[in-house]
Amino acid sequence: MGHERQLVKDMMEPRHFRTLFISDVHLGSKAAKADFLLDFLRHHEADTIVLVGDIVDGWRLKRSWYWPQVCNDVVQKLLRKARKGTRVVYIPGNHDEFLRAFPGMHFGGIEVVERMMHDGADGRKYLILHGDEFDVVVRNARLLAYLGDWAYDTAIRINIILAAVRRRLGMPYWSFSAWAKLQVKHAVNFIGEFERVVTEEARKNGADGVICGHIHHAIIQDMDGIRYINTGDWVESCTAVAEHEDGTFELITWRALASSVPALAAIEMHDEGELAPQAA
């Protein structure tokens, strides 16, 4: 049991990174996996945390107020990290665009900026932005964007029902909305075009790479000499991007990691006669 006990302690010990990038949490939406993000923040520390837009879902909150305690817990966790010395930068997206009226302002130690240039540990420069300004639908046809948002909500509702059924059958989580999106030719073409345009924006700004969110499609790839990084989301994929001290980047899927912790904690409880301590 000694090896398993050490493995539990290693996994419960927070990992520390130079920078963490998180986007598209959509707090205020019933589809937001705020509990997963809260767990992630308990197990990960960084010198800098960059929130790359759509952290709060103002669109959905305007339609119907939904703000459970776990949403407060996520906000408080970020504020607590800021108080303890972590630099927290908030780049608003289209769903939390109300914050774009406050560039340069600080709220509880969290700094709001429209976009920023990040100096990587390896000397590379990365343009960081949410990315909605390159989404023609959001920029030029707000009504169509809202209709698309409604369709996405419907797919997410199907997700919730399927997830409940699959849990009862002992099957792993599977995202219907993510699958459906990738089956639609226009959606796949849009993702490719979005990546191309955002990468070109980085090139125009003299950057070696770009870090963005918006399209809920997590990936790290090189495109014509520019590093393209999308942080994904906390509605479907539950992903974040971490920069190590040497400047390398890692795409973290928290659902996959978190699923193994309870089983390991059970080993710890069986061996020690008590639950393994929770991370702060």
UniProtKB/TrEMBL annotation:
Residue intervals of the Calcineurin-like phosphoesterase domain: 17-217
InterPro entries: Calcineurin-like_PHP, LpxH-like, Metallo-depent_PP-like
Enzyme Commission number(s) from the entry: 3.6.1.54
Transmembrane regions listed in the UniProt entry: none
Key words, A-Z: Cell inner membrane, Cell membrane, Hydrolase, Manganese, Membrane, Metal-binding
One Pfam family hit: Metallophos
Enzyme class: hydrolase
GO molecular-function terms, A-Z: hydrolase activity
Name of the protein: UDP-2,3-diacylglucosamine diphosphatase
